[in-house]
Amino acid sequence: MTEKILHHSKDSIFIEASKLLNSTLNIDELLDVILELTARATEAQSSSLLLIDKKKDELELYVSRPAKQKKKISLKVGEGIAGWVAEHKKPVILNEVRKDPRYSPKLEEEVGFSVDSLICVPLLRKDNLIGVVSVANKLNQKEFDKADLDVLLSLADHIAIALDNSYLYRKAKKESLEKETLLEVEKSLSSSLDLNELLELILDSLSKVVKYDAAAIFLIDKRKQQIEHIKARGFDPALEPDLQLKIGQGLAGWAAQTQKSLIVPNVKEDARYIEARVETRSGMAVPIISNQRTIGVFSLESNELNAYEEDDLELLDAFASLAAISIERAREHEEILEKRKLEEELSIARGIQKTFLPDKHPKIPGFDISGINIPSETVGGDYYDFIPITENQVGIAIGDVSGKGIPAALIMASFRASLIAEIRNNYAIRSIMFKVNNLLFESTDSDIFVTAVYGVLDTKNKIFTFTNGGHNAPIFRDAEGKMEYLLEGGVALGTFENSQYEERALSLSSGDILVLYTDGVTEAKNEKEEEFGTRRLKQVVNDSYQLGAAQIQENIYEAVREFNRNLPQADDLTMIVIKVLEKKSSE
């Protein structure tokens, strides 16, 4: 488009300018037209455009010519010659720029070339400042004159109208999309009482309008008045426990405590931000309020600095208003159903669970092995087992079913039966998990899944070959004190058909310790709603490495009990501890 600009006399400038400036509503295309147009019309070496940011009371240089740039560098209104023009809304023509007392080298440094002569004209629309357009350095070593000023002033009127139209078009388009999205969200929220589904729908819809690299929705526990993490995207799962904050802690905690929304242009410069994601550069948080009470918080994070503006915050506020009532309704519905279900099924589920837990520990030369399941009041779907395979091989399994009560116990019984059947067919470990996954996928509802670790302990060669199906990563401590998580595997069983599972062979030496556990250990909470977590678990293992497997297990259990004392155990606590004995101990 710009190649067609102004090959005619100045008499034809305004006719052609009007056509070109009205030929597009796209802001990027329009900026290119403006720069080319103003430079050629005044026979200038370069042109630049500064647009006003009314909220910051700053001019932001978006583009400059001949070296076209799209970077936001701020210039205060009143600063330098362009700032003076913006402040006073009056044009300036200078042929000896550096002698002018208003001269500032800042803009010159940013555009990257020397400015000797200059015309600077305000862009006004109904007496409101839109920005400033400048041309610099008259070609052929000439000086700018009044005729050039008159041309640029006349063009400024056309430019201001074109920019205003572009802004209105962009705003209307954005508002239309936002309204459509909000209507879609409102309709979706009213169609379901499932809390997880509601939160997924909110995040899906929000991503269509507000760009984010990570997002989290926090809900506040009514009794404890503390934030609990509900749904997150874009965060490392290993760091997600760090998102569980107290009221007043972190950006989300601050928003919950003050009932105020906030934008943070640079999280590195805000002491309230708690880093749960190293890539994050900016963010915003909005409280979710129902009946003047904060029930949760939306938190969005971006990998870019200054990613969010007031319009984004207003949109997130609108989402929060729509979500508040539906979230309250879904949570209440969920609590009623869960309580009723657990009360009715408690005793039956416990009986089912007991039938498939081992009644003794395996006695294997060179190894000390212990397993334990301590039931909670609500009964989960935990499972562990020692499965004889051959003379020198024993299967080690630990698992946990989503949900509680009879359904969880029955699914775990089905998982155990399938696992043992496939083991007896002598399949490789990854094949066993592949087949068990498909059996569960075919026989259970979409919201039911099993997390599990299954491995084979080769007692002769001291090798533990395993795979992890979406379960809590076992902790391995070698004899030298080095600790690692055993992550190799795949997704939770029953979630996707034909899921593949990676297996790993782990060589064992005297003094090595392997701890397998369910989330009843690491997710046990204290009065402050803090989780026991893997860091405390690792510390207990490290402190107990000289002890036997049963005593290590007992120390972990006692540490969990001490951590959540005065509170009932919320979930089954299940562990397997394997320790490789010193040679003298096995002789």
Largest sheet: 6 strands, antiparallel
> Which class do the helix and strand fractions yield?
alpha+beta
Q: CATH top level of the largest domain?
A: Alpha Beta
Radius of gyration: 33 Å
**Unreliable stretches, pLDDT < 50, 5 or more residues?**
1-8
> What form results from the Cα inertia axes?
elongated
CATH topology-level name of the largest domain: Phosphatase 2c, domain 1
**Architecture of the largest domain, CATH level 2?**
4-Layer Sandwich
Instruction: Give the proportion of residues in helices.
Output: 25-40%
Helix and strand topology:
Blueprint: H1 13-21, H2 27-41, E1 44-53, E2 58-65, E3 73-76, H3 80-88, E4 92-94, H4 105-111, E5 118-125, E6 128-138, H5 146-189, H6 195-206, E7 214-220, E8 227-233, H7 250-258, E9 262-264, E10 282-290, E11 293-302, H8 310-355, E12 367-374, E13 382-390, E14 393-401, H9 405-424, H10 429-443, E15 450-458, E16 463-469, E17 475-477, E18 483-485, E19 489-490, E20 504-507, E21 513-517, H11 519-522, H12 533-543, H13 549-563, E22 573-580, H14 583-586
Parallel strand pairs: 16-19
Antiparallel strand pairs: 1-2, 1-6, 2-3, 4-5, 5-6, 7-8, 7-11, 9-10, 10-11, 12-22, 13-14, 14-15, 15-16, 16-20, 17-18, 17-21, 21-22
Word description of this protein:
37% of the residues lie in helices and 25% in strands. By secondary structure, it is α+β, with helices and mostly antiparallel strands. The chain folds into 3 domains: 2-171, GAF domain (Beta-Lactamase, 2-Layer Sandwich); 191-334, 2-Layer Sandwich (Beta-Lactamase); 356-586, Phosphatase 2c, domain 1 (4-Layer Sandwich), CATH 3.60.40. A hairpin with a 2-residue loop joins strand 10 and strand 11. The longest helix is centred in the middle third of the chain and has 46 residues, at 310-355. It starts with 12 loop residues before the first helix and ends with a helix.
